[in-house]
Amino acid sequence: MGRLIRSIALLVVVFVLAGPGQATPLKMAPVAATVFGYATSGINQEKHAYTNSDAAAWEVVQVPFDASLITLDKSNPGTIGSDEGKLFWNTLDSFGGGWTFSVGATDLLDDSYIIKTADPEHGRIPNDQNCQINHPLCVGMEFHASYDDKGTNPDSIHWIQVVYDTFTGAVFTGVDNLGAASPYYDHFGAADGTDFYDHPRIDGLDNRALFFEAYLFAVTGPATSSPGAVTVLPQGVFWGFTVVPEPSTAVLIGIGLFGFALRRRTP
């Protein structure tokens, strides 16, 4: 069903959220699909309300709703400008093993990342088929993104995802590579040069506040068996979810960028 997974150069991470009518490298375009053998819901929704195992009203909420675009600060590569940037780059840099990381020089074109499913879920919700089967107390989120290089970047695309969560109760930060020798999510995970699929979830903890946050970037670099220099594309996607009692507004305020361990289906 799943397993616990753990998963950079010093740079600054800046969150950029597009306003109405403003085109960016990030596009929300929900559509159901079958990727790597998984049938996705094709749903983008903010939250699911449910009654938990203690008969209390809770929610699993997509945070941030509609995901966010992340831009790496190429102009000041030696600066730590925020806790978010420090966590992200220190986590990646600590991977070691001969892997090094830098930021690409060319910004992505509009609609380079397309989010096709961003669906918070609970096992008791009828359309949450991936959480529901034999797991009525499952909470999590299904996420499917595609990358379109628009002819501006090399074809040798990999994915790197740094995660922060509290699935185990303690704060966890790590490179999400399913235990691979490389930092690439696609080494063992459900991804290739075009599509990325993830389904972080945990069963039996629908009555405990927790969260999952991820920084996802398309990258170019050497083969999985050849440690070397990786170029992180300048823009990426920040996505995740939190599990909170209703009403959730007060709890969501101040949710930070810190991490934990997660359970996911092994692709």
Task: Give a short overview.
The protein is mainly beta.
Structural overview:
This protein is mainly β and about 270 residues long. It has one domain (about 5-15, about 25-265). Helix content is about 5%, strand content about 40%. The chain has helices at about 85-95, 130, 250; strands at about 5, 10-15, 25-30, 35, 40, 45-50, 55-60, 70-75, 100-105, 115-120, 140-145, 155-165, 170-175, 195-200, 200-205, 210-220, 230, 235-245, 260-265. Strands 2, 6, 7, 8, 9, 12, 13, 16, 17 and 18 form a 10-stranded mixed sheet that branches. Residues about 1-25 and about 250-265 have low confidence and may be disordered.
Give the averaged pLDDT, no decimals: 79
| Count of β-strands | 19
The H/E string reads EEEEEEEEHEEHEEEEEEEEHE
Strand content: 35-45%
Radius of gyration: 18 Å
Distance between the termini: 10 Å
Helical amount among residues, as a percent range?
under 10%
Please outline the major beta sheet: 10 strands, mixed
Low-confidence stretches: 1-23, 248-267
* Domain count: 1
Number of helices: 3
Q: What overall geometry do the principal axes of the alpha carbons give?
A: globular
How would you classify the helix and strand content by structural class? Answer: mainly beta
